[in-house]
Amino acid sequence: MPTVSSRPRILVICSALVTALLAVALLAPLPFSIVMPGATADTLGSQNGRPVITIDGTSTRQTRGKLLLTTIMATAPDASVKLSNVLSAWLDDQEAAMPRSTVYPEGDTEKEITKHNREQMRTSQHEATLAALDHMGLSPRRVKVTLELADVGGPSAGLMFSLGIIDKIQGDGRGGDLTGGRTIAGTGTITASGEVGPVGGVPLKVVAARRDGATVFLLPRSECSQASENLPDGLRLVPVRDLDDAVSALKALSSGGKVPSC
């Protein structure tokens, strides 16, 4: 048992150890990425002077409004993220700290990750094209769709690509625009059969959508609770399960019909 005179010395040593441990915790890199709202891109518009969607083999139409795909941007995979960065992100609704493995699920180097994301984007564009043409009863053998979008990777733009293709070919089916002239944003993977799947970073994507003028945000139904946490004023969340749901919701918005909500 320590004597009374030795206790202050023990307290000093313990305090020094705790201080050292705290310093290590604050300065040590953690397996997190800091994620922020990224850019948006209008699938009905153009990029670098070229249309995002080009269609051959069937007639197309002039469109009004916008269909914005949304993105997030993250710190580089080899960036040193410290506890102070993570705490700051948790306190800021413009940032989020996410496990690095969920942001960069494949590859060890930035080159490998970029390659993987591009492959996912190509697959997503193919599935989006098949889903859109199937929705309209068109054959992919007769109609060729080219999708071009630089500096965006991953599969989460699938839903918005499909809607862009549909709006360019048939609009709402009644001579009007699928958007109703609005700025519509959204996110979601899509399969060739039109099923819409979940994606990451939705709370930050709604921030990017509202920042760039969107008033409606389409999202997978399973993402409703996350997206509602810090919903910007003036943005309406519309959950969908598949492409048919999304098209029906947009038509209902224009006609004053019943629209699903989170």
From TrEMBL:
<keyword id="KW-0645">Protease</keyword>
<keyword id="KW-0720">Serine protease</keyword>
<dbReference type="GO" id="GO:0030163">
    <property type="term" value="P:protein catabolic process"/>
</dbReference>
<dbReference type="GO" id="GO:0004252">
    <property type="term" value="F:serine-type endopeptidase activity"/>
</dbReference>
<dbReference type="InterPro" id="IPR014721">
    <property type="entry name" value="Ribsml_uS5_D2-typ_fold_subgr"/>
</dbReference>
<feature type="active site">
    <location>
        <position position="156"/>
    </location>
</feature>
<protein>
    <recommendedName>
        <fullName>endopeptidase La</fullName>
        <ecNumber>3.4.21.53</ecNumber>
    </recommendedName>
</protein>
<dbReference type="Pfam" id="PF05362">
    <property type="entry name" value="Lon_C"/>
</dbReference>
<dbReference type="GO" id="GO:0004176">
    <property type="term" value="F:ATP-dependent peptidase activity"/>
</dbReference>
<feature type="active site">
    <location>
        <position position="205"/>
    </location>
</feature>
<dbReference type="InterPro" id="IPR020568">
    <property type="entry name" value="Ribosomal_Su5_D2-typ_SF"/>
</dbReference>
<feature type="domain" description="Lon proteolytic">
    <location>
        <begin position="151"/>
        <end position="253"/>
    </location>
</feature>
<dbReference type="GO" id="GO:0006508">
    <property type="term" value="P:proteolysis"/>
</dbReference>
<keyword id="KW-0378">Hydrolase</keyword>
<dbReference type="InterPro" id="IPR027065">
    <property type="entry name" value="Lon_Prtase"/>
</dbReference>
<dbReference type="InterPro" id="IPR008269">
    <property type="entry name" value="Lon_proteolytic"/>
</dbReference>
<dbReference type="GO" id="GO:0005524">
    <property type="term" value="F:ATP binding"/>
</dbReference>
<comment type="similarity">
    <text>Belongs to the peptidase S16 family.</text>
</comment>
